[in-house]
Amino acid sequence: MDIAVHKEVEFSVRQREVLDAVLALMVEHGDGFSMAAVCRRASCSKETLYNWFGDRDGLLTATVQWQASKVRMPGLDSSAVSAESLRQALRSFAISWLEVITSDVSAALNRLAVSHAGSGKGRLGGIVLEHGPLAMRRRLSPIFEIGENAGLLQFDAIDLAIRTFFGLVVADWQIRKMLGEAARPSASGIEKIARRAVDEFLLLYGAGELKNSKSSKE
Amino acid sequence: MDIAVHKEVEFSVRQREVLDAVLALMVEHGDGFSMAAVCRRASCSKETLYNWFGDRDGLLTATVQWQASKVRMPGLDSSAVSAESLRQALRSFAISWLEVITSDVSAALNRLAVSHAGSGKGRLGGIVLEHGPLAMRRRLSPIFEIGENAGLLQFDAIDLAIRTFFGLVVADWQIRKMLGEAARPSASGIEKIARRAVDEFLLLYGAGELKNSKSSKE
DNA sequence: TCAGTACCGTACCGTACGGTACATAGCGTC
DNA sequence: GACGCTATGTACCGTACGGTACGGTACTGA
Lengths: 218, 218
Fold this sequence. Notes:
The structure is a homodimer of 218-residue chains. Chain A folds into 2 domains: 13-69, Homeodomain-like (Arc Repressor Mutant, subunit A, Orthogonal Bundle); 76-210, Tetracycline Repressor, domain 2 (Orthogonal Bundle). Helices cover 67% and strands 0% of the residues of chain A. Chain A is mainly alpha-helical. In chain A, helix 1 packs across helix 2. The first copy, chain A, is elongated. Chains A and B meet through helix 6, helix 7, helix 9, helix 10 and helix 11 of A and helix 6, helix 7, helix 9, helix 10 and helix 11 of B. Chain A binds a DNA duplex (30 and 30 nucleotides) through helix 2 and helix 3.
């Protein structure tokens, strides 16, 4: 699952400015912006654009990678894991994830990737898949294993448990956001959603003291 | 929630042929097909196309509605509901839903709607949202209420329960499909997924004899 | 001072596409 | 057989966009 190339691309300051301009345009117009519009927005010339990124697809790819490189996810310290720290880790993971997928930038990126995957035009779909659902699985895996080894989680197959976690957290938020339903839950709303999702998840897969223990109000 | 207009549109046989051609093109090329391509595929003239559907957006809208009108979902007879019949209803609902969202046609449609929602171009996003997640909620609602009245289900808020059901069933299948991950679960695979999702759901929201009762192998 | 480099701004080219106009053909009706 | 109706096929127009070319400018380093 980790065979995909994680080419770490470095961009200059100026290039990052350009890519941020592209991100802004994506949020505003989806795929419907021209290279000329990028130049206007970023105050750069077309030639520079083509020198740096090759063609339009290259520019979009770079933009996706640039955005992906910004996203970081919380981890879990394996040395001192307790019922509460595990619950907290899952919860903040869920919060981060919900914040990402309901953000305008992420929605725009996902829209772009999805439509490119449909046109079979490039690797954008693969890249976003790699940095989206698959990255979530990769990052969640060690946390789950730590939990299992500590006797706090119990599952037959880690893949299925992770998928369940994904489903409980994301539910229909992502697809509704992508389909243009404007409202994004507030910060406290997201926290509530995450809390509930984690509680439900632990009802299903918690073990020992985590099972059936309601979340603390902290 | 039911305020949206369900304009039942009738199409002639010939028009349906054209719309099916559009569907096929969508599956193959996403949004990247021309009106001329539609004409070639359907052996009709541009003028006819524009007479019938107004413009490109109208054609796409009609196509989405035509496809949506094809999808039907299983219901539940409220008179004789038992633990087993409710479980079965949920299960076949889950199976139908999974079959729909992992189909190529649905993926193509969702891609289109999603990218149009991003460009703010039309009502496609709203239409698909209406016939997708929101339709699922609408159709699931009465089933849940029947279950609650029969003492088979127990939830604090029906909306949240439905969202949980959605999450457990759909999980990451839809987004991965939309992002171009080719593999679609087999029929028996889908059944397994549905069975597991319903089991998990009933662990969380089942009451009485449904709670903690593992699913029968039927 | 001058060459080299990196970038900006803009004009330009080819093409593809949405949409329109028109000429033509099948077909039912009187 | 003349008519309206509907649909096909094709030729055409305007435009928008991807991509290229080129002149001009600022900076760097010898």
